[in-house]
Specification:
two-stranded parallel ribbon, single chain, alpha/beta, 9 strands, globular
Length: about 220
């Protein structure tokens, strides 16, 4: 069987960089394609011998379709990160465009790196993160309503830069851990979770919360989710 060709949107992001490297180290299983915003971000992927393409989430859908065409799966790990053009354009409208592009390109498998507590406005309504979570919530709702994809929404809590390989809480819902804001998850573990989701069909059409600090192996958690 040929390696799974996986396009990573937002490949220059911190989680996505881990993901690209991990996929590149599994050549028998995966062929990563780094989708980046500008040419200045390309050298790191050239150094890894990873194919890269330019993508503009503010551009037309057909340009996004051309960028992902030929992929077996797409991982969306882009975000406005507090910078222009903002979360409504990237985190919401960008996702909507990608959903259209997936349909046009005939690609079903789609993994989104989202955020914990997106479905709980009581946590973020009226805070500095209000617009960010509003955009995330609208995008997640569109994903869950899209009949033409097989999605997984990963919802990590506060991100940290540890080495990964840590255990997680066996959460089924965002609120399964009391005081969840007291915990973080390594970006490397979020990337590993994305790979495990690509390998495990049981994660299709599911929303998976992620936090380090529990006593469950990440691989076991994803396999049994």
């Amino acid at each position: 069987m040929s390696p799974l060709r996986v396009s990573i949107i937002g490949a220059n992001g911190k989680v996505a960089k881990h993901l690209v490297r991990k996929l590149a180290n599994l050549p028998a299983e995966f062929t990563p394609v780094a989708l980046i915003r500008n040419q200045d971000q390309a050298q790191q992927f050239k150094d890894l011998n990873v194919e890269y393409k330019l993508i503009d989430l503010t551009g037309p859908v057909d340009s996004i379709t051309a960028a992902i065409k030929g992929s077996d799966a797409v991982v969306f790990s882009a975000g406005a990160a507090g910078k222009p053009p903002g979360p409504e354009i990237i985190d919401h409208q960008g996702v909507v465009k990608v959903l259209e592009a997936l349909k046009d390109a005939g690609i079903k498998r789609f993994i989104l790196v989202g955020a914990l507590k997106t479905d709980d406005p009581s946590v973020w309504d009226g805070t500095a993160l209000h617009n960010y979570f509003v955009a995330k919530k609208k995008a997640d709702d569109k994903i869950r309503a899209a009949p033409h994809i097989e999605y997984t929404i990963l919802r990590p809590g506060q991100l940290s830069d540890g080495p990964g390989g840590k255990q997680v809480f066996a959460m089924k819902m965002d609120n399964d851990v009391e005081n969840s804001r007291s915990y973080t998850i390594d970006r490397a573990d979020v990337a590993e979770a994305a790979i495990l989701c690509l390998k495990n069909k049981n994660t299709i059409n599911k929303v998976i919360p992620l936090l380090n600090g529990g006593d469950v192996d990440l691989n076991k958690f994803i396999e049994e989710f």
